[in-house]
Amino acid sequence: MQRAFPWHLIFFLAPAVIIYTVFSAYPLLDTLRLSFFTDSESGERSFAGLSNFVTLLGNAVWSEAFWNAMWNNTQFFLIHLLVQNPIGLGLAALLSLKGLRGARTYRTLIFLPTLLSVVIIGFIWQLILSPLWGVSENFLYALGLGQYFDAWLGKESSALITLSLISVWQFIGIPMMLIYASLLSIPDELLEAAKVDGASPFRIFWRIKVPLILPTLGLVTILTFVGNFNTFELVYAVKGALAGPDYSTDIMGTFFYRTFFGYQSQLGSATMGATVATMMFLVILTGVMAYFYLVQRRLTRYQL
Amino acid sequence: MTPSFQYQQKARMGLVHLALLGYTLIALFPIVLVIINSFKSRSAIFNDPLSLPDTGSFTLVGYAKVLQESDILLYFGNSLLVTVIPLFLVLLFGAMAAWALSEYRFRGNRLLALFLAMGIMVPIRLGTVSILETMVSLNLVNTHLALILVYTAMGLPLAIFILTEFIGQVPNELKEAARCDGITEIRLFFQIILPLVRPAVATVAVFTMVPMWNDLWFPLILAPGDATKTIQLGVQQFIGQYATDWNSVLAALSLAVLPILVLYVFFSQQLISGLTSGAVK
Amino acid sequence: MLSLKPTLSLTAALMTASLAVEAQTLTIESWRVDDKDLWQNILIPAFNQQHPDIEVRFNPTSPTEYDSSLNARMQAGTAGDLVTCRPFDVSLNLYRQGHLMALDDLPGLDHYQDFAKRAWSTDDGATAFCLPMASVIHGFFYNKEIFSELNLDPPETLDEFHAVLETVKSESRYTPLALGTNDQWEANQIVFTNIGPNFWQGEAGRLALINGEAAFTDAPYVAAWEEMARWSDYMGRGYPSQTYGDSQNLFALGRAAIYPTGSWDTSYFNDQASFEFGAFKPPVAEAGDQCHISDHTDMGIGINPASANPEAAKTFLNWVASADFADLFTNEVTGFFSLSTHPVEVNDPVAAEMISWRDECDSTIRLNAQVMNRGTPNMEQELWIVSSQVLNGDITPEEAAQRIQSGFAQWYEPKSE
Asked: Is the ipTM of this complex over 0.90?
């Protein structure tokens, strides 16, 4: 394919690259740059080298908050990884079964929560879980599990897990749809051949389908990782920017929001906020690089 | 097939339906709760959130207020405009770029892929001031175009990221066969590749449009004017500082879900269903 | 942005020169989404009666997004002409960055006492950058029907207060206190700094902290948290996950007897509660003790220097400083009390009760509002956290005091005066 000039390359890439660069990449880089600067009281900006990073990681007040948010975010991600993605895979596997009636209806309905705004999700789950209004408490009593009920969203020990599960509930449609789309594209002949050989549906699933959709599972994992380390809406809607009780639900997104924009009497700091964002960027970048170089390159991609 | 095998098959399908039905209930219960409560009086919402509206508690006061006090139809129109157009652009430009990245070897390919993925690695709110300054200098503040451009830029990284993966799965033989027929690269993409990855495009469409539709931040910053206000921003009018008018909020939120639901059903039916027979052969 | 500013002011100059009669437009930035109707239907028409040539638009943003979106739009030059000001450092910071105009020559400022102006002046008190608009007073609401059903009187002292709570708890199915800790801010703004001034003698205790003569670990401050630690028995089931909205509803639906609050809630319960409610002030230790109330300067209004119509903006501010406005605002925006020196007759009975406390008690502002919020860790947030943890029973009052004091000591050098 040695041609004079790859005009088609320009044609394919230019629109996306131009719009993205001007309205996303440039503004983001322009702001990330601020992590190397500091503002005086009157708003004058001067170069500060790495001192913001030294403060963030070296000053106990900042570093405790940072590592707390990082650890909470890691838990948030692990819960998604261990709950959301397996259930998503399971649902997609069931939906893609040949001859399943009503698959389209199931798929549409299960995806519904993903369409809702976080405002509605936050409100409705707070209502459901509130001890005052008793929806879930009565429900648990009906199942004979009443004694296990607690004010989960208000307890330091359970608030983060509860929020993670609410988020799982909302976003399960995404892994489900991705895996489903991938399962659909497995050629029938392959499956028919296995069936003729007498393989059980379970065996077909684990031995044939799963290996074929491994790249998609890798994609789902990295998307979950990126999404989880970048999100803040749900915690913000349910617990506010302070992510209580005592920062036990603080994740990188809320920590960034408070630092960058300020909250109540805490003044926003564009430079420290950019520093936090740069750290988020580095964390996510590490994950994405790992994906690009380890998963995407190593995985044998079965070209169907 | 033996009868016992058929019986087994049926029992198995029954279990599958049971599992799917169970999860569907979990997914729907909270949404149904919002909708039934949007038809109830305020005290009924809180005294008995689980009950259906009855003659004593039924009220349309929330809906009446929403329809009366805000230009809800205009806001719907604005929201549709700033969701559908960027969605189209994201899918088109995103698929084109994903194709280029996964198909052609050129210097800086991986670097470009990484650069394009940066948009999902940093919270987009970070760039707010810089984006707003750009819009001011382009004289685009309080226009639909400002939101369309930002949402397109916001949606592209994820679209490219996902579509690259799916386009990479298209069989080589197919492409080579087409090339042997002397087809141009551009026609190859639009006539052969794009139809092949329709399920993936539909999937990307579905979750590209959700954050656009539900976004509150950029309408607030870039287009807060009455003529360009989106439905989410309109809903926010009902969320007061201290008092909170949940009747209207629930009504407005229920209304705000409808159009995106229609869009979603459109995409998932149109694009995926045509493929269940498997176009990738 | 840089190229835009001269253009704007040029257009403004041209407009004032050649089209002096042309209507000028002012946009007000505010977080008071609730007051939108009041501004549009009452306040702005009243202003236009005197100044028909100035068009005013009230453009509120929800309170959680107000500061961040205002900041972004200020920096890019798209913010409105008039800015509703948060008290103290948030607005001071806007002024320092050149986003609020100095108001020293504004005649309207003469209608305010120094204590009101302090929240929106530079530290040396030399320059004012916002005109004080309103304060809120903190206290308790009570359900009069429940009180008469149980033969209770509004308590004056702490002992009476606890007797009332105990009676409600043991003799009825009502929740004694409608209060939750999910949102955290209530624990500080309507509990700790509401009941606290009686423990630390209001202004004296507040200034002692700033001057370095007292520490949070001293008895008066710890005592306020100790009082709070005794409340957990009286709050609703599962109160750690109870939101502010839940508490409002609990009280409005007649399920709770007492509601710790700020005066801004008056209009909400006027609309939502089907029973009569009254207000009592924070209880004192012994009958006859001097009482202190938290009378917090909450809202001011200033001018964006980038405004195209600064003269119109000043005209508007002078109107805000007038007796007409004081009366309209206090009586229409129930629960927000004008800070000007114009005498105002308050019509609403509960609001009138609360404003009458100003005569018998000494006023102070929220403990940490001035100076103390400036450092890292931010004291306002820390107070939210420790106060709600004390209410939750997760930490002791002493631990709360130590955490606040050590956070404060990390960055604060008392001014030697």
From this structure: no
